Amino acid sequence: MFFQKKGLLAALFLILLVMACSFGKSQDRIRIVKSTPDEGTILQKGSNVDLIVEVGYHLGSAKTGTISLVVQDQDNNPITQTSMVVQEGTRRTTLAKTFTTPSEANSLFVFTPLSVQGKESSVAVDRIGFSLK
User: Where in the chain does DSSP place strands (E)?
Assistant: First the structure.
């Protein structure tokens, strides 16, 4: 009976170890590394902005995913967006978009959601903000 319990505990430990290793590998994440203009820059209302955002990401839950660059005002009204397909792994990539800031907004937020096919929502997201004057 002692050996049965010991074998059962060893099997349970092995299952938990495999689950923990799998969880760590598939945990998706994204982080904005750099932006031009810099985060917190005060932008002029009605001006053209050449937005460039560099992101670092880890995609482990799927072979491919999508990273989007979404710009919204303070009321979540969409201003512009673009997206690109990315491969699994830990990498960096750059997204860029030119747009005109709305004259009626006071601030803008830039979101970078990472999503995978088959998931109902983004698996990870980061954001930065800008004031308008």
Answer: 29-36, 42-43, 48-73, 78-100, 107-111, 114-115, 127-132
